[in-house]
Please model this.
Amino acid sequence: MSVKLELYRVFKEVSEAGNITAAAQNLFISQSAVSQSVKQLESDLQTRLFARNSRGVSLTPDGKMLYEYVRSAMGLLETGEEKLSQSRQLQVGHLTIGASDTVTSQFLLPYLDRFHRQYPGVHIQIISGRSHKVLGLLQSGKVDIAFASTPQDASSLSTFRCFDTHSIFVAAADYDCDFDHVYTLEEIVRFPLILLERKASSRLYLDKFFLQNGYHLNPEIELGARSLLVDLAAIGFGVAGVTEEFVKNDLASGKLQKLQTSFTIPPRSVDLCVLRDVPQTTAAQKFMQFVQANL
Model:
């Protein structure tokens, strides 16, 4: 657009006031500045926009046509400014979070509840996925915040540790094993194991730990859903490798029992992740503050 926006603002005011003097007063500029702006706009558009009359000025046919578009455009700009102001005050806005179903249900729900109650005008979207998926969505700009196990190469991310997770092995209370016995790595791999599928980051971590200690995990059952690990272990299908923080209720109720082991798998962390060099929206900043303030 070759014509400056300020010229259109003057044009709109003159059109509505119907008088150069009144328009100048409304715009807090001189009459000569208004007249010069009108002349400049007519020169740039190569058409006459106003006709003088005894009361001031009136729009020509070309001026009337232009005015309808200018009025609409200026109205949209004012609406945009107002929406931006509302977004900054969190009266409106949009927040997209990437997290697994388990992290959402076991960790995020209280924060989502509080945030929604305090800022009901902000639309919250949650995209479910494992760590590698939600981190990919973060890198591509499709989510504002990702909750994930931070990858080894996190140079492009800013992360905040939310909580640690611990890998353990569990079985049904009546499963054919000795819960008083302290099992070795070799003994664990001999059980019929129930594990998550290999693309899950927690499974990859478990595989890596056993391989580093000279053992290969060969599960009888591989699953895509954490809940099925619990369900199948609870009915005696085998020993399940699970995240302790996500099965606390099942352990407390006696649905599952933890096997004692002679080894301890190093904990992993679930982190709040954002892109390092990308400014965050007001909604994302506030949600991050919600989480960080309560850890």
